[in-house]
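During the reporting period the student researcher (J.K.) took over the structure-prediction task from the postdoctoral fellow and processed the backlog of single-chain submissions. One of the processed entries is reproduced below for the supervisory committee.
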Amino acid sequence: MKTQAMEDTDSTKSKTPLQLQTADWLLRGEHNVMVTLTFSGDAGVSYRFAEKAFGTFAHRLKCHLFGVKSKKRIAMCPIVEDYGKEMMWSTSLPGVRQGTHIHCLMRLPDSPMGHKDVVRRLWRASGRRCGDPRVNCPGKDDWYVEIDTEHDRAELTNYALKKCKDNIDGILVKFVPTRTSI
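J.K. obtained the following structure tokens:
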């Protein structure tokens, strides 16, 4: 399940020991979808802004899926790319839009495709700069990819970790559950 973005970079295989260890740990989460959440505009956003917007989104998604008072958590690993000093360079081909975005591996209940419109709507409502996939990924649906094989899970996990060669600074660790999730 290689998307065009994956083919544009040589990032489907983890290379450094940190990437290998992180991928091994993430694969235990049995994620069933990878979502790419974008921000509107060409200037990008700060890590802090991305973290706040994602926090709003994660809370709203949890409440939508399980109710406001539920203690259940969604297994997820959000990774922010192209924020701050990273905005000076890009892994994309010339002409390909590249701005701050979040790759998020998640394990959603039931069929993940049944949650696609909810994810899009809740992301758009999570902050004034939260981008619409229909605008930022025109004519493509690869912003929301169902993971249904172990091979796809490994490829998409490695893709999400492509910028975590020497550190995991881009991972929004406060949203990665440390206790049992759904």
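The committee noted the following: The first strand starts at residue 33 and ends at 38.
J.K. will present the remaining backlog at the next meeting.
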